[in-house]
Amino acid sequence: QVQLIESGGDSVQAGGSLRLSCAASGFTVSNSWILWVRQAPGKGLEWVSSLQPSTRRTNSADSVKGRFTVSRDSTKDMLYLQMNSLKSEDTALYYCVTNGDTGHFDFRYWGQGTQVTVSS
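Now predict its structure.
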């Protein structure tokens, strides 16, 4: 069964960096879409970054472009979100999401989330 377990969330000062990790199991990472999605306090879900399976092409929301980088290590079944130049508005619960190599654009698999808090 598909499992995603995030880690790496912490409290940091504005301008700092964090790397979120997501341990994947039950599916083939290299064949799957990977998304990072966040939810700030009192707000809805926001797509942050995505990684395509075959081309490894990445894309990010304008709010994080140039600061956040999504990547994967298929040999370790690990997914990452490198976050630099953090801002207070990046404070949120961050989720790792996948379609689980189903070949469909159906992102039903979510981790439990990891909390990032940025203080100014």
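The two ends are 40 Å apart (CA to CA).
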